[in-house]
Amino acid sequence: MLSLILPTYNEADNILEMIPILRDTLSEIEYEIIIVDDNSPDGTWKVAQELSKDMDNVHVLRRVDRRGLSSAVIDGFLVAKGDVLSVMDADGQHDHTILPEIYSSVLDNKGVAIGSRYIEGGSVGEWDERRFLMSRIATKLAKKLCAVSVKDPMSGFFAVHRSVFEKALPKLNPKGFKILLDILVHVPKQTEAKEIPFTFSVRHHGESKLSWKVQIEFLEYLYDVTIGKIIPLVFVKYCLVGSLGVIVHVAAFTAISMAFKNGSDLTFSGFSFSVIGATETAILFNFWLNNIWTFSNSRLRGISIFTGLLKFNGACLFGALANYAVSAFLFSNGFPELASVIVGAFTGVIWNYTMNRMFTWKQ
Ligand code: GDD
Ligand code: MN
What we know:
Blueprint: E1 2-8, H1 12-25, E2 31-37, H2 44-53, E3 58-62, H3 69-79, E4 84-87, H4 99-109, E5 112-116, H5 129-145, E6 158-161, H6 162-168, H7 179-186, E7 193-197, H8 212-224, H9 233-260, E8 261-262, E9 265-266, H10 268-294, H11 304-332, H12 337-360
Parallel strand pairs: 1-2, 1-4, 2-3, 5-7
Antiparallel strand pairs: 4-6, 5-6, 8-9
Helix pairs in contact: 1-2, 9-10, 11-12
The protein binds guanosine-5'-diphosphate-alpha-D-mannose (GDD) and manganese (II) ion (MN).
Guanosine-5'-diphosphate-alpha-D-mannose binds near residues 9 and 156.
C-alpha cells in the first residue's frame, strides 16, 4: 500500500485541485493520502477535512502546536499504514504522473525512489538565477553527506520503504525542509536509491514557504551532522555570544566610567563600580542573546525569564570563580602567566556553559 503525505501550509486552493487529480493518477493502486496541515490561517485543514468526508482513504492531521515541513512529513509517516511512504508538494509543482513509478520502484528495491530534477530528463523548470544557484550549492554540499549516492538529495518528492524509514527515524532532525537528505544521511550504505526524472513546474496558487530561516536551518544542519558531532553548534553559538559580550562589556565600561571621571582620573571606587556595572550589562546582553538564539529551542518566556536570569548570573559567577581558581592554581605552580590565564578562562567558559545548559535552559 502507498501512503502519500501532502504537507500543507496555506494551500487551501491547491489542495482542492490536487485531490481529484491524485485520485485519477492512483486509481490502479491501493493508497491513502494524509494531509498534514499546521493549522493554516487560510483554513487548509478545514477544506481538507471536508474533502476527506467523502473519501475513506483521505485523512487529515491538523497540528496546532508545531510548524515545519520536515516534522510534518515525519508525523505523517508515523501515522501512515502503507509499506511505501511517500511525500510530494501540495501545490502542483511535482509531476504526479510519475507517482506510480516511484511507488513500484520502492516495492521493487525496498529502498528509496526520488523524483529527480538533476538527472537526464529532469529539470528545475522556471527558476530565477538566485534560486538556481542556491539549489546547486546546497545540492553539492548535501551530496557529500549521503550514505548512498544520488543526484537530487534535496528533492521534496520521494518515497521510502517503511523498513528503511524506521532505521533512520531515531536519528532524524525535524527542523527545516531537508527531510530526504536527512533520511539519506542516516540509511544503511547498501540501501538502493532510484531516481526518476521530472520537471519542477510552477506553483498553481500561493507562494513558496522556503524562507531565509529555512536556508539558515539547512546550514546549521550541515554543521550538526559534520563538525557538530565533535563541537556542538550550541557551544559555538554560546562562544560567539560571549565574544560579543566582551565588546558590550568594554563599551559599557567606557560609558559608565565617564560619569566617574574627574578630568582624566578615575578613582578606585569609580573603577570598581564601572567594572561591576559593565559586567552586569554584558551578563544581561549575553542572557538575552543566548535566550533568543543559542538556546532558542528551549527559549524562556514570561516570568521564567526572571528565574532564568538569576540562574544565569549564578552560573556566570561560578564560572568566574572556577576561572580564578584554575588560573591561580596553575600560576602558583609555576605555569607561565598567560598560559594560566587562558586555561583559566576556558575552564570558566566551559563551566558556565555546562551549568547554563543543565539548569538555565534545560531541554
Ligand atoms: N505542514 C507544513 N508545515 N507544511 C509545510 C510547511 C510547514 O511549516 N512549510 C511548507 N509546507 C508545505 C507546503 O505547503 C508545500 O505543500 C510543501 O510543504 C513544499 O513547500 P513549498 O513552499 O512549496 O516549497 P518549495 O516549492 O519552495 O520547495 C520545494 O523544493 C525544495 C528544493 O528545491 C520543496 O519540494 C522542498 O521540499 C524542496 O526541498
Ligand atoms: Mn512547492
